[in-house]
Amino acid sequence: MQVTETAAEGLKREFKIVVPAADIQAKAESRLQALSQQVRIPGFRPGKVPMPLMKQRYGASVLGEVLELAVQESADAALAERSLKPALQPKIEVTSFDEGKDLEYTLSVEILPEIAELDLKTVKLNKPKVVVADSEVEEALGRVAESRKVNVVVEDVREAVKGDVLEIDFVGSVDGVEFPGGKGEGYDLELGSGTFIPGFEDQLIGAKVGDVANVSVTFPEEYHSKDLAGKAAVFVVTVKALKAASLPALDDEFAKGLGLEDLDGLRNAIKGQIENEYSSMVRNRVKRDLLDALAEKADFPVPAGMVGLEFDAIWKQIEDAKKNDSLDEEDKGKSDDELKTEYTTLAERRVRLGLLLADLGQKNSVQVTQEDINRAVMQEAMRFPGQEQAVFQYFQNNRQALDSLRAPLYEDKVIDFILGAADVTEVEMTAEDLAKQDDAA
Fold it and tell me: Which fold has domain 255-440?
């Protein structure tokens, strides 16, 4: 095999490779010989088929198979001899071949860059430390109680106020004609909840049990029923009962009803949940800051082909967002050229950081274990109660799905390794400060 480098620019390499005809012929004859042990041709015992007949019947297909293998093996050898790692699948173009003659082809490839050793101790980060205040726990406890409030009939005669619940019968009509779905009996309506058409609930504030009210409203233009959208309607409403919300007592019995031992146990459970939420926020914040810090230190070139693929994926999301009118506010009003410039820069950053994290993980023997994979699959299964077995089977039978779990797991493990080696300083702050910084970012 003869290999000649014909171009070297940045990370791009091009080679002219010549595979001698004798090598191809030897491989073809070896393959035909092996095949002759397997094929069955009338009049010949296995292994006794004459080679001329084998060439006549199978020569063309075997030659195609041998050529493909020769190209792959010689291309791999050419790159390995020069310690070049392809960033993407190399491009191969056969320039010359006839039976009995040398095989000549060009190999064009973008290679992965050399990444200098990074002293992780020079990476300085602040890690927020958020302490859960007792007041936050009590507020959350109040929300739990609010979610379990019950409506109790008010025996005293009084006018309904916002927040009360009216048990009502109602009949709706448009131009004096009742419409389908506009009738109900014994319906509990919380005033101020926004459950009914805008303006409906407001007209019942001040009502008393036994009142019959005519409530006039106009259906919104975007109402789901086209027959009613934008039309004026009148509802005859009969107030059957007035109810007020009653919150449960916050005591040990309330906690036991939720599966906890006592009220202190409920408080501790709530505090733990809030701490987990803050932990997730802190993790995202530190990871973002770490990637920003790494981006400043990483200055190696990146393969244009990888950047192009990443940009294409981003740009598809931008085009979909345009179609759905969900483009980020900061991108609205920008021209396509402006957006392409910005997102090309983002694609380059993503590729560079991806290569850097992969390099750091490889150099430091970071690995995703089977236990890590099993845990991730379990977490996915827990997202679909009652369908856990189907989720397990899906991942068991789908290698691509497993790989989709492996990639973020590997990234997180590399991030954890870097954070363990970096100069990280804990900084106490309130949850409000953390949220403000996240919003700003």
Answer: Trigger factor, domain 2 (1.10.3120)
